[in-house]
Here is the input.
Amino acid sequence: MKKVAVIGDPEFNIGFRLVGIRDVYDVTNDEELVNAVRDVLDREDIGIVVIKYDDLKKLPVTLRREIDERVEPTFVAVGGMGSVEELREKIRKAIGVDLWK
Here is the structure.
């Protein structure tokens, strides 16, 4: 069974810890953010990664492209503008169906 991972600052992550998610990456700067994303991309047991929309947009273009091209893990950006459309596209790519139609 695939796991859910969360990447964000400690305040963002606390709620996810409270509901029992164990794979939580506390990041406080851009270098830690990039390292956490690379780590989850290398793990085969992670299926979904929750990340703040603003943090996702901070990533280098090459890393964002790799995230966009992969089906798994699926990155779910929360907060910020445009995140619903991006989630819709990720779901469409993952299962081949647009659930909003």
Q: What stands out?
A: The chain is about 50% helix and 20% strand. The mean pLDDT is 88. The longest strand covers residues 46-52. The first helix runs from residue 10 to 18.
